[in-house]
Write a structure and sequence with these properties.
The protein is 58% helix and 4% strand. With 298 residues, the protein is mostly helical. Strands 1-3-2 form a 3-stranded antiparallel β-sheet, covered by helices on one side. A hairpin with a 5-residue loop joins strand 2 and strand 3. It is globular.
């Protein structure tokens, strides 16, 4: 299957930018204080917005149905990844208990694709991802470009929610621009995450859930399998693991530590990119408004 975003440049995948571009950031350290509004901007960028994924997913699902590809339930597009995504996958203990891990839920998108003939699969992929000839691109601060086709259901969906495909690429890739910002921050980030990983493992073990790292999403799939339909509640055992995951990660407050370190180490980058951050925050706010209209039929 095609990927939804393509890179044009030295790196091979978007998620690897923070590692592969280690020499491209600005080592501004503590010599330049961060602008007063930086903490607020980072907070807004880091706040989860699941409605973005639900709205884009609904639009794409309806678009596919119009072309003869009917999913059993609405597909959900991934919302932009939080910048400091080290805290729990869940926003609350109740959410963890009620919804469990997405890795144990059957994917109606994959189920439909796997049921099609090879010829129909090709048409399905084009209907969803679009044609390469329609792709538009956005350049990250590193110079690497990410792109997405505009004539597929996915491109049309994110354009309706974010205002344009380029707007979506800006918002969804903000994390990559930010994480390559400061050499000093990357070093401290590694130390914070390494310490938190050990503390998380100890906390989970104490609660009766042996783990070796913080990847409980993969652990849930390995332990329970992909066993439930979309919308079906998790088993009691899965809920217990999810609640323990939230409690342990919430107690560590890793994201708070990462934000403090970033503000301390990346003042120069934040000063130079303040206008860009403000623009991305504004785009995200507008996208959330659009998404809520889609979800309510407004």
């Amino acid at each position: 299957m095609k990927i939804q975003m393509r890179l044009v440049g030295p790196a091979s995948i978007v998620a690897a930018l923070a590692l592969s571009l280690a020499g491209c950031g600005t080592s501004s350290s503590t010599s330049t204080p961060a602008p007063p509004e930086s903490a607020h901007l980072l907070e807004q960028l880091d706040t989860p917005a699941p409605e973005l994924g639900f709205a884009a997913g609904r639009i794409a699902t309806e678009c596919l149905a119009d072309q003869g590809f009917r999913l059993k339930s609405n597909w959900v597009h991934d919302a932009p990844r939080p910048i400091f995504s080290a805290d729990s996958f869940f926003d609350s203990e109740d959410q963890a208990r009620t919804y469990g891990f997405t890795s144990t839920v059957k994917n109606s998108f994959n189920e439909l694709e796997e049921s099609l003939s090879p010829e129909r699969q090709q048409k399905f992929q084009v209907a969803f991802f679009g044609n390469d000839s329609s792709a538009v691109y956005y350049a990250l601060s590193s110079g690497t470009k990410v792109g997405m086709s505009t004539d597929g259901c996915l491109g049309k969906a994110v354009a309706e929610v974010y205002g344009s495909v380029v707007n979506y690429l800006m918002v969804s890739n903000a994390v990559n621009d930010i994480l390559v910002a400061s050499t000093d921050f990357r070093a401290e980030r590694s130390q914070i995450l390494a310490k938190a990983s050990g503390e998380f493992v100890a906390c989970m073990n104490a609660k009766g859930h042996p783990v070796t790292d913080q990847n409980t999403i993969s652990l849930a799939a390995e332990k329970f399998g992909v066993y439930r339909a979309e919308g079906e509640k998790p088993s009691a055992e899965e809920s217990q693991l999810a609640v323990a995951d939230f409690q342990c990660k919430d107690s560590l407050k890793v994201n708070e530590k990462l934000k403090t370190a970033f503000l301390d180490k990346s003042g120069g980058w934040l000063t130079n990119n303040n206008a860009k951050l403000q623009s991305i925050v504004a785009l995200k706010k507008e996208a959330i408004t659009n998404a809520r209209k889609v979800m309510t039929g407004g």
